[in-house]
Amino acid sequence: MPVSAARAPLDDTLTMIDLHGFGAQLAAGTALTVELALASAAFGLLVGLGMAALKLSKSRGARIIADTYSTIFRGVPELIIVLIVYFGASIVLTSIAEAFGGEEPIELHPFIAGTLALGLAFGAYASEVFRGALQAVPPGQVEAARAYGMSRWLAFRRVVLPQVWRFALPGLGNIFLVLLKDTSLVSVIGLEEIMRKTAIAVGFTKEPFTFYLAAAVIYLLMTIVSMIGLQLLERHASRGVRSATT
Amino acid sequence: MNWEVIGASIPKLLAGAGLTLELVGLGLAIGLIIAIPLALARVSGRWWLNGPAYGYIFFFRGTPLLVQIFLIYYGLSQFQGIRQSALWPILREPFWCAIIAFALNTAAYTGEIIRGGIRGIPHGEIEAARAIGMSRLLLFRRIILPRAFRLALPAYGNEIIILLKSSALASTITLLDLTGVARTIIARTYMPIELFVMAGVIYLVITFLITRAIRALEYRLSPHTRPPKPA
After folding, report:
1. Nearest-10 crossing angle of helices A208-237, A194-205
2. Residues 6 or more apart from A122 whose CB is under 8 A from it?
3. What is the CATH number of the domain that holds A127?
4. Distance (Å, rounded) from C-alpha A24 to C-alpha A188?
5. CA-based max dimension of chain B
6. What single-letter DSSP state applies at residue A58?
7. Residue B173's closest CA among B82, B100, B108, B106?
């Protein structure tokens, strides 16, 4: 058999894996997607914990603020939130700049707009998860810690928070998997994450199915990796807890 | 704020909301039809039924809906066979592509929700139905399906809300749903905040009404759990 005939299929396979040279582009988009997901989750966790504290506070006003926040951000499409944050922030920034004599319109970087928007959406769901987890810590444990002479903050940090983390992790994991997929929406405001890079590749190669399928496979792999990571986190958070099974 | 433009845009936004409801309604209906066999395959206990069903569910739950919409709307045109087939007049239309994507996507989630409902039925009820001689089909129609539906209703209500919110993605394939109409008016007037907030409010109202309707349905379907009326 001639060598060239044997090599042709191999070349084809390599072109498939490299996606007509767009493999590196998709990899760069993937990295940006991962960064966006992690940044949004970090911001969303802070917002969620803060809002959960407001929901459990004695002040009626604080509870109303937190409940309104989660009602709005859970009832409005994530795409609309992304678009409002992006265009809204740009308009506000531009008018602030004009007040100080600036003339150029200012645009919020899509990465920052995306982090804010997805983080706010994440926080709305996370606040409910945290509220449940905070309530799941038996109050007797806090009383015991206080009786030992721990300050309120120390009791919160050493007794409540580690358990909240354990109770909240399964719920937070589910929200994170939703967030990971919602990062695709930020392509609409021009961030060059996976979807945007894929659209560019489709424009050049005219092979939409191949490329969107490749994007789907990348998202699936990210989902699988996240699920494994979440499982490890859960195992770490519940070390020392006797399980009812086995 | 320019109230005149906002006032004039409301009828257009409401027309967009009509298309949103149409897309969601059709997607849900077709999705439910696909979801029932998926759920049955999942609980069948046979690997050659469970395996493919799980693969389907894993793909549609593990990838963004946006990718699924683009795969169907842009992706299918890559194949000449499809472009020449009798289905092409349907697959060319963004309206039907959106509905197909919504239906396939929601079916994956709904399948798992129904599976949870079936798993939640107390086994004694199924044994009792068998003991009085119901055939498999009758057992399924009279006991399993209605019971699973009632048990799954709260979770299914959440799924309806999620699909309603996801339907905003229809605007990315040129459809003039609620979000699409808002984006079109913004392109002309450049008033993004006003119009997106208006659209957001309409979504909130629809979400609120759906939540209420589901709660009313739950109440109606569980008379046995209510305390008896005082005589």
Report:
1. 160
2. A40, A41, A43, A44, A45, A47, A48, A175, A176, A179
3. 1.10.3720.10
4. 21
5. 72
6. S
7. B100
Residue found by looking up tokens 């590196």 in the block: A24
CA distance A214 to A86: 28
Smallest Cα distance from A111 to chain B, Å: 19
The residues, ordered by sequence, that sit 6+ positions from A113 with a Cβ below 8 Å of its Cβ are A82, A85, A86, A89, A186, A189
Looking at B44-144, list the stretches that DSSP marks H as alpha helix, in order from N- to C-terminal side: 47-62, 65-73, 80-83, 88-91, 94-119, 123-131, 136-139
Q: Is B192's CB within 8 Å of A88's CB?
A: yes
CA distance B102 to B164: 10
Tell me, yes or no, whether A216 lies in a domain. Answer: no
CA distance B128 to B105: 36
As for how many domains chain A has, the answer is: 1
Collapsing DSSP states into helix, strand and coil, what is residue B19? helix
Q: Which two tokens stand for residue A9?
A: 């299929």
Cα gap B62→A226, rounded to integer Å:
11
Nearest chain A residue to B76 by CA distance is A209
Domain limits, chain B: 3-222
Chain A residues with beta carbon closer than 8 angstroms to that of B186: 87
> For residue A185, what is the nearest residue in chain B, using CA coordinates?
B66
Helix or strand (DSSP H, E) at B26: helix B3-43
What is chain A's pLDDT, residue by residue, as a tens digit (246 residues)? 444 445 555 555 555 566 777 888 999 999 999 999 999 999 999 999 999 999 999 999 999 999 999 999 999 999 999 999 999 988 888 888 888 887 788 888 999 999 999 999 999 999 999 999 999 999 999 999 999 999 999 999 999 988 999 999 999 999 999 999 999 999 999 999 999 999 999 999 999 999 999 999 999 999 999 999 999 999 998 888 876 654
Does a structural domain hold residue A133? yes
From its phi and psi, is residue B174 left (phi > 0), alpha (psi between -120 and 50) or beta? left
ipTM for this model: 0.91
* CA A226 – CA B70 distance, rounded (Å): 24
In a domain, A154, yes or no: yes
CATH no. for B3-222: 1.10.3720.10
Single out the residue of A95, A220, A238, A59 nearest to residue A162, CA to CA.
Answer: A238
Which residue in chain A has the smallest CA separation from B203?
A76
Chain B segment 45-64 residues within 8 A of A by beta carbon are: 58-59, 62-64
Question: Which residues, 6 or more positions from A154, have their beta carbon under 8 angstroms from its beta carbon?
Answer: A145
Within-domain flag for A198:
no
| Structural domain range at position A55 | 35-189
Per DSSP, the three-state class of A241 is coil
